[in-house]
Specification:
By secondary structure, the chain is α/β, with parallel strands linked by helices. The protein is 27% helix and 23% strand. The protein contains 15 helices and 17 strands. The strands form 2 sheets. The protein has a 12-stranded mixed beta sheet. Strands 13-14-15-16-17 form a 5-stranded mixed beta sheet.
């Protein structure tokens, strides 16, 4: 009779397919730490993990071993590297201590570098080591913050980033949680002709015009404008960027007018993909599609996305004819008013914006939920009632949402804010 007891096997007897399935539940550093150099077969099995390495959420002893014994041996295979500045900013310093001036020798084929949770000072120090990397052309910076005591000006930091790696970078992307840059005190005008793709948060529209002047070879830019300018505009707004093909603007804070948009559009005559998400308090010209059509008619657009949040609606606005003014555009527009009739949103379909601030009554509108919710990632709702259950009508339609901020109606609970992080359909609420 055959035995009914299960057969025991060692880890090395498991097939590669099963071991690689197990590796999916581990971080890349755990995979390297656990399997590298155990034997020839296991080292070959995880060779795919050599190309993209993540140095994050890692214990100190494991970090030192990987830096001393593994990265120097597999560095020539690494195309993409993630470095998270954990341990209160110590990790990046230790990383540069290990590699420093040898970085170009250890990572000769590095193409993309992702830096997470750096301060402005630690980032500047790290960039001092990015020299002579022949294939490095893309930097992604996430959660960059500025120390209160820092003496580094944002203009100086941007200059250090733009000129890093011997001016060989062409793509620099800051995420939505990074610091806001100003170019007001730019000491000297240097053209950064190497930069072709940029994503960044700026203080004012004047900073955007300054940036346009500094980046004459820009092809794509995603920019957020955070404040109204506090000084008269003295920027040369007449130099066009003829290379720019993709432009995305998101700005919920400053009140925009048609003249602001016109000053930007005149500088990007060859743009093909244009996305604008703004708000305004008083310029009704932004509601009238004929005005926008006149501005855009000279452009050869292949894609146009528009979102306008308009406040302080007056009785002089003819709501019934708003959409009729947009009929010259070959796409569908939607216009929705808030319950209190003090706010309206006007936007194009298909909806393409992932971050918005909205009155709760508009976000709960059935038309808006169907056309917007599938795209949302970050949403702030204003004037929310104390019955948070109302917001689940929105959330259940938001397949991609990862954070939702609720600003409770101040008439009920003054200045009360709830922040919901949405992870895999689980909700974490912070008061």
């Amino acid at each position: 009779m055959s035995s009914s007891y299960p057969t025991k096997c060692t880890l090395e007897e498991l097939p590669d397919e099963l071991l690689l399935l197990i590796c999916r539940y581990l971080s890349s550093t755990d995979v390297l730490f656990s399997f590298y150099r155990l034997n020839f077969r296991l080292t070959e099995m995880i060779s795919g993990y050599f190309r993209h390495v993540v140095i994050a959420q890692i214990p100190y002893m494991q970090f030192t071993y990987i830096c001393r014994s593994i990265l120097p041996e597999i560095g020539s295979n690494i195309n993409s590297l993630v470095v998270s500045n954990q341990w209160k900013g110590i990790l990046s310093k230790l990383f540069t201590n290990y590699f420093g001036e040898r970085m170009s020798l250890i990572f000769p084929h590095l193409r993309q570098l992702i830096l997470i949770s750096f301060s402005d000072s630690s980032l500047k120090s790290f960039f001092d080591c990015l020299q002579n990397l022949p294939e490095l052309n893309k930097i992604v910076i996430c959660h960059l913050y500025q120390k209160i005591s820092s003496s580094i000006k944002s203009e100086t930091l941007l200059d250090r980033i733009f000129t890093a790696n011997n001016n060989q970078l062409n793509s620099i992307l800051f995420d939505d949680d990074s610091m806001v840059f100003s170019l007001e005190d730019q000491p000297h005008q240097i053209l950064y002709s190497n930069i072709q793709k940029l994503s960044v948060d700026l203080q004012t529209i004047d900073d955007l015009h300054r940036l346009f002047t500094l980046l004459p070879e820009l092809i794509s830019i995603n920019v957020a404008i955070n404040k109204d300018p506090t000084k008269p505009n003295k920027i040369n707004e007449h130099i066009p960027i003829i290379t720019l093909k993709q432009f995305q603007l998101q700005s919920f804070g400053p009140s925009w007018n048609l003249d602001d948009l016109e000053s930007i559009l005149k500088r990007i005559p060859n743009v093909e993909e244009l996305s604008i998400a703004i708000e305004s308090n008083d310029d009704t010209r932004l509601i009238d599609g004929q005005n926008l059509f006149c501005l855009l008619s000279t452009l050869v657009l292949k894609k146009f996305n528009y979102f306008l949040r308009f406040y302080d609606l007056s009785s002089s606005i003819d709501y019934t004819n708003i959409l009729s003014t947009w009929q010259q555009f070959k796409q569908e527009f939607v216009c929705i008013k808030s319950d209190d009739k003090e706010t309206l949103v006007l936007y194009t379909l298909p909806f393409s914006f992932s971050f918005l601030i909205l009155p709760s009554s508009i976000a709960k509108n059935e038309v808006f939920i169907e056309s917007y919710a599938p795209q949302v990632k970050i949403l702030t709702l204003c004037g929310v009632s104390t019955n948070i259950v109302d917001t689940f009508t929105i959330i259940k339609k938001c397949d991609r949402m990862h954070s939702l901020t609720l600003r409770i109606d101040e008439n009920i609970i003054p200045s009360k804010i709830f922040l919901l992080h949405v992870l895999s359909n689980h909700f974490f609420v912070f008061l």
